[in-house]
Amino acid sequence: MDYERVHLSLKKMIDLNNRLGAKSEYKGKDAEVFEELIGLREEILDLFGLPYTVANISILDNLERESGIQNVIARLQNIAREYLLSVPRTDEELLTYLEKGYLTAFDVLAELKITIHHYTLFLCELLFTGRNISKKDILTELNIIKNNKDVGLLNDIGIMAQNVKDYNLLPDYSTIKKYNLRYLELYMESVFFKWFEKTPYS
């Protein structure tokens, strides 16, 4: 592991956190800084071979001063050793852990190496809707997202959600349809109902 790179990255992370301060919402340049912070967190955890889970992120977020960098490095090293020695869980086992409440959707997506997004979180939530949707079907959908990460699929879905009232008229709609996302229409329905503070599951 490149200790110098880790140390410099952690110093930069402290600086970005200080620039953002304690805000609940980020706009303009702050939003850009926050996006940079997310990328930096992922980079740091990746250097240790660790997933972007809530527990691992909290270790980074608790770092407020440079004097604590060595302690954070030592802690992440210990966690990385335990993680690498642990028995790998199958994708379906991860969803079972989510269903039973042992893991959060954020943790599961991190373990699956799938981008955390409103749509991928929605797919995880389908386990709790009472609908007859299998874990295999959810994983199939998640893998479509994962395998097409470079084409900006989630970004296009996000744009659709922002224009939920006439999303099917957007230029990219026909392109997205080609990926045969089984639950996309259900997601758009969910977004639409939330717009009016109702729920499609009631």
From the alpha-carbon coordinates, what is the Rg to the nearest angstrom?
19 Å
**Largest sheet entry:** none
Average pLDDT for all residues:
87
Low-confidence stretches: none
Helix content: 55-70%
Secondary structure tally, helices: 11
Describe this structure in words.
The protein has about 200 residues and is an all-alpha fold. It has 2 domains: about 5-85, no CATH class; about 90-195, no CATH class. The chain contains 11 helices and no strands. Helix 1 packs antiparallel against helix 2 (about 30-45). The chain starts with a helix and ends in a 7-residue tail after the last helix. The model has no long low-confidence stretch (mean pLDDT about 85).
Write a concise synopsis of the structure shown.
Helix 1 packs antiparallel against helix 2. The protein folds into two domains: 3-85, no CATH class; 91-195, no CATH class. It is mainly α.
How is the topology of this model organized?
Elements: H1 3-20, H2 29-47, H3 54-61, H4 69-85, H5 91-99, H6 105-111, H7 118-125, H8 135-147, H9 153-162, H10 173-177, H11 184-195
Helix pairs in contact: 1-2
